[in-house]
Write a structure and sequence with these properties.
Radius of gyration: 20 Å
CATH class: Alpha Beta
Strand order of the largest sheet: 9-1-10-11
Helix content: 40-55%
Number of helices: 15
CATH superfamily: Aldolase class I
Bound molecules: iron/sulfur cluster
CATH architecture: Alpha-Beta Barrel
CATH topology: TIM Barrel
């Protein structure tokens, strides 16, 4: 206890000397940040102070624990009619490399993963496939739940929900309601990218607009379907657009309390249209990741509990460092991931033992969580 108190005192001493100390103390006192606070954080070059501050906040919430979830990703189809310029995964309808998993293939993967890895969560995401009716999703969810009722189904981004609603000529709320009845537990936060329509017009002009993403999330929360929130940074957005994105999510969370976690992704340009047209050549890199992780912890302190370290786009080493910059969750094992791997990024699967080892290597206590971030065992 003496060591813990000494470290906290040491951190507070360093925070006091930084030029963001007033923001950190406001957050600790329960104040909400405004646009100028967020801009000051994003414009600060003092990554070290941001990290010390975020780590202090993280330690107050989670102590030495760092969680992960044992899961698979089912990228059930790569057929998509939305043609996002940042995506290397999709194929247009009829393309020779397009695929859609059958119910039988989905169940085979789930059963194999349950037996081989003891998964507790299935992350289901895919393209906007106009040939899939809602019965496809309902059948998949029902059959998974029939066989494994305790596996959490974390599935379908807000933009996929919108696509199903358009195919069915229904409302997104009705679609969410039917999918919940079929077994959907929670929604991933994908599809937000940057919640600014100028950015969306540039990088994903055919995708839902910012207010639609926010509306679908609010509808899900009102039906007691909790979700993650995400941010994909490093394309064409300005600092102010990043700040507004964080604030829009914070404001919705104050209203619904439905976000369980926040996941900042750095854009991986490899093999995407944005790289070939020259609009983005490189990803934001390691210091950009650590800064966004730290700022996310400060902005969402006491609002959104969990912050993922994004090993998928930044690698295990950076994810370890992210735990020292405010993240508390390593994310999932992500067996079967195909979206990020389409960019040719590093290996996109990890075993539970590799995650446990990675967490231990930097002095944290690994713990496995379920779909709702409940800890189910410590290591
Ligand atoms: S990001 Fe999603 S919606 Fe956009 S093209 Fe890729 S699969 Fe389609």
């Amino acid at each position: 206890m003496y060591i813990v108190n000494s470290l906290a005192a040491f951190a507070l001493n360093l925070i006091n000397k930084s030029d963001i100390s007033d923001i950190v103390y406001n957050v600790l006192n329960g104040s909400r940040l405004n646009l100028s606070d967020c801009l000051r954080l994003l414009e600060s070059d003092d990554i070290y102070s941001l990290g010390i501050s975020a780590n202090h906040l993280r330690n107050k919430l989670f102590g030495n624990n760092a969680s992960f979830v044992n899961n698979i990703i089912l990228n059930y189809t790569n057929v998509c009619v939305t043609y996002c310029k940042f995506c290397a995964f999709y194929r247009p309808p009829g393309h020779s490399e397009s695929y859609t998993l059958s119910l039988k293939q989905v169940l085979e993967r789930v059963i194999m993963a349950k037996e081989a890895y003891g998964i507790t969560q299935i992350l289901i995401q895919g393209g906007h496939n106009p040939n899939l009716r809602i019965e496809y999703y309902e059948e998949v969810f029902r059959e998974i739940k029939k066989r494994h009722p305790k596996i959490g189904i974390h599935g379908l981004s807000a933009s996929e929900i919108d696509m199903i609603a358009r195919v069915e000529r229904s409302t997104t709320k009705e679609i969410l309601h039917r999918l919940k009845l079929a077994g959907l537990d929670s929604l991933p936060g994908a599809g937000a990218e940057i919640l600014d329509d100028e950015v969306k017009s540039a990088i994903s002009p055919l995708k839902i607009k910012s207010h639609e993403w926010l509306r679908i999330m609010e509808e899900a929360h009102s039906l007691d379907i909790r979700s993650s929130a995400t941010m994909m940074y490093g394309t064409v957005e300005t600092t102010e657009q990043r700040a507004n994105h964080l604030l829009l999510i914070a404001r919705l969370q104050e209203k619904t309390h439905g976000f369980m976690s926040f996941i900042p992704w750095s854009f991986e340009p490899n093999k995407t249209e944005m790289q070939s047209d020259g609009s983005v050549r490189y990803s934001s890199g390691g210091s950009g990741l650590l800064k966004m992780i730290a700022i996310s912890r400060i902005v969402f302190y006491s609002l959104i509990d969990h912050l993922q370290s994004s090993w998928l786009t930044n690698g295990v080493g950076m994810a370890q460092l992210a735990l020292n910059y405010g993240a508390d969750d390593f994310g999932g094992t992500l067996i079967g991931e195909e979206v990020v791997s389409a960019t040719g990024a590093r290996s996109t699967e990890l075993s539970a033992s590799k995650i446990i080892e990675s967490i231990r290597q930097i002095g944290y206590r690994p713990c496995e969580r379920d779909n709702y971030y409940n800890i189910i065992r410590y290591f």
